[in-house]
Amino acid sequence: MAFESLSEKLNGVFKKLRGKGVLGESDINDAMREVKLALLEADVNYKVVKDFVAAVKEKAMGHEVMESLTPGQQVVKIVSDELVSLMGGTSSKLTYSSSGFTVILMAGLQGTGKTTSCAKLAAYLKKEGKKPYLAACDIYRPAAIDQLEIVGKQVDVPVFADRNSRDAADIAARARREAEIKGYNILIVDTAGRLHVDEELMDELVRVKQAVKPHEILLVVDAMTGQDAVTAAQAFNEALGIDGIIMTKLDGDTRGGAALSVKSVTGKPIKFVGMGEKLDALEPFHPDRMASRILGMGDVMSLIEKAQETYDAKQAEELEKRLSKNQFTLEDFLDQFGQIRKMGGLGKMLSMMPGAGNVTDDQVDAGEKEFRSMEAIIFSMTKQERKDPQLLNASRRKRIAAGAGVSVSKVNSLIKKYEDTKKLLKQVNNGKFRRNRRMFPGF
């Protein structure tokens, strides 16, 4: 999971601080030394680390902190505030043209996931009520146009392409005219991946920029490359003048050095992060929420937003009616696994839950395996058994266990989980949390 290694080390440091009623200068110095090492091991830029630690140390040594009743918690808050500041302070949104037609130019190194990010961005903008159009301007990479057309089709966004032209700037200009004529309000221009030291290709990118006059230039970088991504961002910004960054593969980067360095080094904010391979796995970047995740405090706002995105009003209403009549069945229980998958899976949910920062990938995998096992058990039941679990006597449970390839004790465990969930949902439905349950339909 993102920042897993850094999060684990920082939480180890803060655990020591919270355990002390009084903090002395030596405690702060020791803690800051460990924080510095943790950040360096996470591949954060050295100057960024140095400035960050100095800022935290200065504030942590203040009288308000040293003499407070909870000095350890005060230090954690200071670190949290400085992390937010380091990553940009506030969320940076896309800039749209006042004329109603916006051009977004996508640039980046080879292999960063730029073409896929074009489709992901188009899918995101569609959800925001926009009408995007894609332009295939990578005239070098074999099958680049095919790839954009495939992912474009998957998100139901058309692609402008010319396989015969060798002039990227001309293709981009014609794509802009075509998009405006056909009534689209956003053009996303996919360009060829290039090394920032390749002057010829960088000059071509400048010509594309001049041809379409973009309102946003977004650089796509790979979080897994660490400080190489920051160096590339610096070079592209100097040559092209970027407006923001899309950082891909952040979900697989346990260190997080690029995400913590790029704003401070380049002055340009991260606007979106790729948190998975699926075409809906592009998220706006929120510095405060990311800092909260890093410090193991979860990201409840993102969890709520994810739940609302996958919320099925009709399904939730029907479930509420059945709960009021005590008719929650094993089929309803099975539906909750699907709901979790819609929200990105167990690992995704845990990464946003407070206190789940120490959950390892192995534990997440074990949880996913348990989900699959429970699904197999329910699928081995007849429709009648799913609707009326009271029918599940010993012989039926033995048959179901054989069909699912598990032990009878596993079947018994599933029935126990179902009964516990049913009781909990009945309490939630009847209790004071009822009005908030719609944010997490089925939970």
Task: Please give a handful of descriptors for the protein shown.
single chain; 443 residues; alpha/beta; Four Helix Bundle (Hemerythrin (Met), subunit A); Rossmann fold; 434 Repressor (Amino-terminal Domain); 3 domains; eight-stranded mixed β-sheet; 20 helices; 57% helix; 9% strand; disordered C terminus
Q: Can you tell me about this structure?
A:
With about 450 residues, the protein is an alpha/beta fold. It folds into 3 domains: about 5-85, Up-down Bundle (Four Helix Bundle (Hemerythrin (Met), subunit A)); about 100-295, 3-Layer(aba) Sandwich (Rossmann fold), CATH 3.40.50.300; about 305-440, Signal recognition particle, SRP54 subunit, M-domain (434 Repressor (Amino-terminal Domain), Orthogonal Bundle). It contains 20 helices and 8 strands. An 8-stranded mixed beta sheet has the order 3-2-4-1-5-6-7-8, with helices on both faces. Strand 6, helix 11 (about 255-265) and strand 7 (about 270-275) form a beta-alpha-beta unit.
Overall number of structural domains: 3
Strand/helix succession = HHHHHEHEHEHEHEHEHEEHHHHHHHHH
CATH architecture tag of the largest domain? 3-Layer(aba) Sandwich
Helix share of residues?
55-70%
Instruction: Write out the strand line-up for the largest beta sheet, numbering strands in chain order.
Output: 3-2-4-1-5-6-7-8
Estimate the strand proportion.
5-15%
Runs in which pLDDT lies below 50 for 5 or more consecutive residues are: 432-443
Number of separate helices: 20
Rg, please? Answer: 26 Å
The largest sheet, given as strand count, sense and whether it forms a barrel, is: 8 strands, mixed
Kindly identify the CATH topology of the largest domain.
Rossmann fold
Structural class: alpha/beta
Q: How would you describe the oligomerization state of the chains in this entry?
A: single chain
Shape descriptor reads: flat
Report, as a whole number of angstroms, the end-to-end distance. Answer: 24 Å
CATH class of the largest domain: Alpha Beta
- What is the CATH H-level superfamily of the largest domain? P-loop containing nucleotide triphosphate hydrolases
Mean pLDDT: 83
Annotation, overall tally of beta strands: 8
